[in-house]
Structures are given as structure tokens and as C-alpha cells.
Design brief:
11 strands, 391 residues, 7-stranded parallel β-sheet, Rossmann fold, binds nicotinamide-adenine-dinucleotide, alpha/beta, binds magnesium ion, 4-stranded mixed β-sheet, Rna Polymerase Sigma Factor, Chain: A
Amino acid sequence: MVTSVSILGATGSIGTSTLNLIRDGNFRVVALTANSDAKKLASLAKEFGAEIAAVSDEAAYPELKSALAGTQIRALASATGMAEAAAAKSDILLSAIVGAAGLAPTIAGFASGRKIALANKECLVTAGSLFMREAQKKNATVLPVDSEHNAVFQALACGRRDAVRKVTLTASGGPFRTMSRERLAVVTPEEAVRHPNWSMGAKISIDSATLMNKGLELIEAAYLFDLAPSQLDVLIHPQSVVHALVEFHDGSVVAQMAHPDMRIPIGFCLAWPERLAWDAPKLDLAKLGALHFEAPDYDRFPSLRLARNALEAGGGAPNVLNAANEVAIEAFRARRLSFDGIPGLVEAVLTQAGKEGLLREVSTVNDALGVDHVARSIAATLLPQFAAKAS
Ligand code: NAD
Ligand code: MG
């Protein structure tokens, strides 16, 4: 049977890996979206015979429209176009936009019986309770693409939920795992995007370097699997072979292993509940010889501590943390903020947001996006103080 798939964020790293699998499999593409790269989007839509192509950035619409002239593919744009593309009927919606921008289109794609293959972790960090509640209400199944969560999903199948004691997410430690605090203060964006094991988009690569990525993933796991913060742990594992471990009450620990290649968890989601038969890279443990583990260093990587605190605080704290982090990453990439200024700014925004009463739970997507918006403007206001410290 042919499986139909739509991809939000088709031009990115996850989108590209997904299309690589789709190219060789029994799939049909329905809708593809991108932020503003109309040329690349149009070329993918033509190659895969999509029905719909949508750009989020309205300014890119004329280019998309003319690139698709003479084809049957519908060109759409802006928030309404993204929502329409997301809602177009298909078996699977793969959500791979980066950042909180993925929240509204992903929720617009919830439909009964539909599989939501979720790569966009910021959705769950921005509005975790709301997101999972809406999915349940609409009877959509959320399948985690994020490799650690995909591993947890697989390991959880080995026992009852009330027998789970602890869930541990592994982290590679990023490119600066062994770097001194002094050296960390002066790393460049070019150094930060060079991940040792994974090839990913710029934002998640920098999040991996600060360990904020693992912090966001703790929050993602708490909402996805309905776990208490005390049940969640992080373990540094530089080889990225063991992706997560689930400990049950009887002392058994079930781990999932795979070669670090995002096509493996993506393929899992595309085929679930079956298994995708493809020429996946093999794991050669004899060649590896040993697996290395160590505890995370919360002092050198304060972003992880900030995320854990936000998870424990709950309510709007993860949303504010995420918004501040997105602003901080942009500023770091533009060389307006030092690497160690990233957690500095995030912490200051959380403090200010607390004073402004923004850390409460919200009940609608619009409210969540409203908090996101205010947190971003607080971050923009505070940025110059931290930027000054950067030079
Ligand atoms: P990327 O930057 O490579 O791609 C992002 C995609 O989103 C692009 O198609 C871009 O056009 C689109 N986009 C960006 N801003 C947008 C906006 N404002 N509105 C609409 N579309 C927009 O990112 P990526 O590395 O593919 O990551 C995507 C998501 O998957 C992130 O949430 C990331 O945390 C998560 N993830 C990625 C990996 C990985 O290996 N890359 C692994 C696990 C989870
Ligand atoms: Mg991950």
C-alpha cells in the first residue's frame, strides 16, 4: 500500500533526510512547505509530484507561483497557506519546521487517525500540555522523530507505563564537551555548528553545543510521555550509539541503539507500526570496541540547568525559555552575543518574565504564541546589555 506524506519544513535537514527515504520507498507526497526558499521548494514539489507547495514568507510567493506555472501543483503562502498545506489529507504529517514557528501549522494538521511524525521539539516546549491534549482530542498519533524520543518510544514498548522508574536521554556532549570555561566563552558560530556525530540545521547544532538541545529534549520527553521531571535524566555518551534508556521497576534497563543517522528514526515513523526495510547504515559494535558514558557538567553548560529548572517550574516557563533561546541563538549567529551570553540572556529573560506574570499555563495556541512574542521582545530589550559584555 502506498503511504501518503506531507512535510512541514521540507527544505531543511530533517526534510531532506525524509525525502531521501521517500525517494526510494512506496510513498506519495501530498504537501511540502518551506520558509522562504521558493526555488528549492518548487523543485522538490516537482520532483516528488506534490499536490501543494507552501511558503511561510509571503514575499517568496511570486517566485513560488512562477516556478510552478504550468504544473498542477497549488502554490500557497503565509500562515493560512501553511495551515492549509498541513491540513491537506495524507496518512502522515512530518513536522520539521525549526522553532516555535512549527506550532500552529503542526496543530492545524491534527486529524483523526493521522500520524504526526514530530521532529519539531519546540512545539512541545512552547505548549506541551496543549499540544498533547489537542492531539488526543483529534485522535492523531504523535510519533517522535527526535532520535532520543524515538528510542524511548521503542523501549517503552517493553513494559507497562506504571512500571517505568526512569527515562534517560543520552547526549553527545556536542563539539565543546571537554572545553574549558574560558575557551567556551570565546567560541565562534562556525565552531558551534560543527557537530561531531550529526549533520543538522544551524539552530539545533548550536543548541547541541550549549546542551540546551538536551534541556529542550527533557521538556519534550516530559510532555510526550507524561513523565514527572524526577523521572527524567541525562547521560553524556559521545558516540551517540545508545539513544535513550528506560529503567523499569524490576531493575531492567532497556536501551535502543542505532548508528547515528536521522533516517533511522524518520524511517521508523514513516513505517510505524511496521518496520521500514531499507539499506540502513549498520551498527558495528566490535569495531567501536567500547561505549563511553559520563555525567553532564551543569556548571560548564548552564543552559541544561536552566531548561531543567523551567521543566520543574512548568506553566509558561519552558515557553519563555524557548523564545529567549531562539533570540539568543540568532544573536550569537549574528555575532551580537558571545557563546556564554546565550544562557546569560535566557536566564535574565526568565527572571523578567516572572516579574511580568508570564510564567503561567496557557490554554490556547494564540495565548502560547502571545507569551512567545512577549518573551522575544523582553529578550530583544535585554540583549544590548549582554551584547556589550560579548566584546
Ligand atoms: P533546518 O534549519 O535544517 O530546517 C528548518 C526547516 O523549517 C526549513 O525547511 C525551513 O524552510 C523551515 N522554516 C524555518 N523557519 C520557518 C518559519 N518561520 N516558518 C515556516 N518554516 C520555517 O532545521 P532541522 O535541523 O531540519 O530541524 C528541524 C526541527 O527538527 C527542529 O525543531 C529540530 O530541533 C528538530 N530535530 C532536528 C534534528 C536534525 O538532525 N536536524 C534531529 C532531531 C530533531
Ligand atoms: Mg535529539
